[in-house]
Amino acid sequence: MVLSLGLLSGRAGAAEGAGRPFLAYLASWTEVATGDPAKTLLARLPGTMSHVALGFVKPDLIYAGDLDLSRTGLAFPFSGTVLKGAIAALKANHPDTKVLLAVGGWGYFGWDARDFRALAHLVRDLGADGVDLDYETADSGCARTPDGRIACADDARAIAVLADLRVALPRPYVVSLAGWSVGAYGEGAFAASQPRYGPYVGMMRAVLKSEAAQGLDLVSVMSYDAGPNFQPLEAFRAYRSLWPGPLALGIQVMPPEAGGPRFTVERTVRLLQEVLSDPKAGAMLYGLGLVPPGPTGPDNPDYRSLARAICVSLDRAGCAAPVP
Q: Which residues pair with 151 in a beta bridge?
């Protein structure tokens, strides 16, 4: 099997593979409880990932300094001092890896009270490289207009959030965006893409068509957990129709709560092979530290197996390096 051969050889990684994005979320609540930065999962990661996003920070975080994480939303079982040390250790071993703070996510809906000045302060204090914007809301209020377009009650706020984030963190800080599964559907060739119901269909269209999108460096598609009719490749194509830059297809460790097929090793490899004709295509993994219920194996893979499958599929360097 090509995957097995690639893992055994370690694959040197072609120049093309080195340029493809591989963003992996690290679930803060799954980290190792330790006072030694070198013993954290974060510090021991291999250099196979282009970006590691630490989840999740509240948009309305309270952070005044001194590496106090208690009111940021992050759930690491260690102090901010240890986290700063872990980031420094990872970057010392793998200088090309970008460490991002993932802001938002399900349940962190405090966008109207966002404090991106505090967020930027936290990024700088930790020695991180930027922010992954996971803009989610309880109801985006998207609906089809009489002329066939998609308009969302959240459009103006979503655009303002992205614009404010880039002002708070000017380049060379990285700003990436996690796009909702059906967020690029609803118009044109994707007007009838499935599933096409609910208030989230098209929720990312206005953002990606706005001037604020020029502030993005990477977009990933949460191409999972959207029901049995959802097709990850269709979602990838829909986002590509709106975004010309680096684009990552999302792979999920856990079984989908909304039904539909899970990401086995074989399915992950097959899906990624389908997008690699696109020179800016890559992958996103959600997430490091997550282990599915039951015995693990190729048909029920943990984050380690999927991280290696992604690495080999993208032809990145060092895929034989162990994932802790």
A: 143
How many helices (DSSP H) and strands (DSSP E) are in the chain? 9, 10
Write out pLDDT tens, residues 141-193.
Answer: 999 999 999 999 999 999 999 999 999 999 999 999 999 999 999 999 999 99
Q: Which region holds residue 269: left if phi is over 0, alpha if psi is between -120 and 50, else beta? A: alpha
In CATH, what number is assigned to the domain containing residue 136? Answer: 3.20.20.80
Range of the domain at 101: 2-313
- Please report, for residues 15, 52, 91, the alpha-carbon distance to residue 12 in angstroms, rounded to integers and kept in the order given: 9, 21, 20
How far apart CA 181 and CA 260 sit, in angstroms, is: 13
Within a domain: 298: yes
pTM (2 decimals)?
Answer: 0.95
Secondary structure of residue 257 in the 3-state scheme? coil
Exposure of 282 in the CB half-sphere (CA atoms within 13 A)? 26
Helix or strand (DSSP H, E) at 260: none
- Domains in the chain: how many in total? 1
Burial class, 211, CB count within 10 angstroms (exposed 0-12 / middle 13-18 / buried 19+): exposed
Asked, for residue 321, whether it belongs to a domain, the answer is no
Residue 323 located in a structural domain: no
Q: 42 in a domain, yes or no? A: yes
Residues 6+ apart with CB under 8 A from 92: none
In this structure, the chain runs to a length of 324
If DSSP codes are grouped into helix, strand and coil, which group holds residue 287? strand
Looking at residue 82, its amino acid is: V
At residue 10, the pLDDT reads 39
Cα-based torsion angle of the residue sequence 66, 70, 76, 79 in order, rounded to the nearest 10 degrees: 30
Give the span between the Cα atoms of 136 and 133, in whole angstroms.
9
> What is the identity of the amino acid at 99?
V
